[in-house]
């Protein structure tokens, strides 16, 4: 389906009835690539390995940090958003308490590879939700899946470096335009 057709569909415009032998372009659903669950698993495991190297928690639960120098603590299971809000309100003023799931734990890290791992974990979580059918697939999801495929390839080639005991190079992403300039 071309972009103009997608815009028309989003705005609710439909063409006059199509001849019987012509496909309806509005029935074209976006589909995530085959093999995506395996790529999600590969990238997620590599990102979690980076978290472990930097002593960040890796369990898929919610966490609390009671200040900038405090460690992340696992929140009790079953807390409602209202319970979490009450905890934030009970915190001392200016204490810098933060809540989050494991994908955001590395977002503020001074290490680039941890920030990249955080981004990849968030992407894995989002795509896993899409695969479960919780919400429709968007063009951004397709772009994220392509990024994940690229990251999986980079991480797989990086795994051979670890196996040969070569020094670890941080994972870096560059825009296509940046590569064209080199």
Quick rundown:
By secondary structure, the chain is mainly α.
Q: Can you put this structure into words, describing what you see?
A:
It is a single chain. This protein has helices spanning 3-11, 36-53, 81-90, 112-131, 139-163, 176-181, and strands at 62-66, 72-74, 97-101. It is mainly alpha-helical. Residues 159-168 have low confidence and may be disordered. It is globular, with a radius of gyration of 21 Å. It is 48% helix and 7% strand. Helix 2 packs antiparallel against helix 4 and helix 4 (112-131) crosses helix 5. It has a three-stranded antiparallel sheet, with no helix packed on it.
Query: What is the helix/strand order?
Result: HHEEHEHHH
C-alpha end-to-end distance: 34 Å
Assembly status: single chain
Q: Which word captures the global form?
A: globular
- Beta-strand proportion: 5-15%
Structural class: mainly alpha
Major β-sheet, in short?
3 strands, antiparallel
Number of beta-strand segments: 3
Give the low-pLDDT segments: 159-168
Query: What percent of residues adopt helix (DSSP H or I)?
Result: 40-55%
Give the strand order of the largest sheet, numbering strands 1, 2, ... along the chain: 2-1-3
Summed over residues and divided by their number, the pLDDT gives a mean of 75
Report the radius of gyration as a whole number of Å. 21 Å
How many helices? 6
Mind sketching the topology for me?
Layout: H1 3-11, H2 36-53, E1 62-66, E2 72-74, H3 81-90, E3 97-101, H4 112-131, H5 139-163, H6 176-181
Antiparallel strand pairs: 1-2, 1-3
């Amino acid at each position: 389906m071309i972009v103009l057709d997608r815009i028309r569909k989003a705005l609710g415009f439909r063409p006059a009835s199509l001849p019987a032998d012509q496909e309806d372009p509005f029935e074209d659903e976006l589909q995530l690539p085959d093999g995506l669950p395996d790529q999600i698993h590969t990238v997620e495991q590599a990102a979690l390995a980076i978290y472990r190297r930097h002593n960040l928690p890796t369990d898929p639960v919610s966490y609390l940090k009671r200040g900038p120098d405090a460690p992340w603590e696992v929140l009790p299971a079953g807390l409602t958003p209202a319970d979490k809000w009450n905890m934030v309100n009970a915190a001392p003023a200016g204490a810098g308490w933060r809540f989050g799931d494991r994908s955001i734990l590395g977002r503020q890290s001074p290490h680039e590879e941890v920030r990249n791992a955080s981004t990849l974990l968030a992407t894995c979580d989002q795509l896993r939700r899409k695969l479960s059918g919780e919400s429709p697939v968007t063009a951004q999801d397709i772009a994220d899946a392509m990024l994940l495929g690229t990251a999986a390839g980079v991480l797989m080639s990086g795994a051979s470096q670890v196996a040969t005991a070569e020094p670890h190079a941080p994972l870096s992403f560059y825009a296509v335009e940046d590569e064209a300039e080199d």
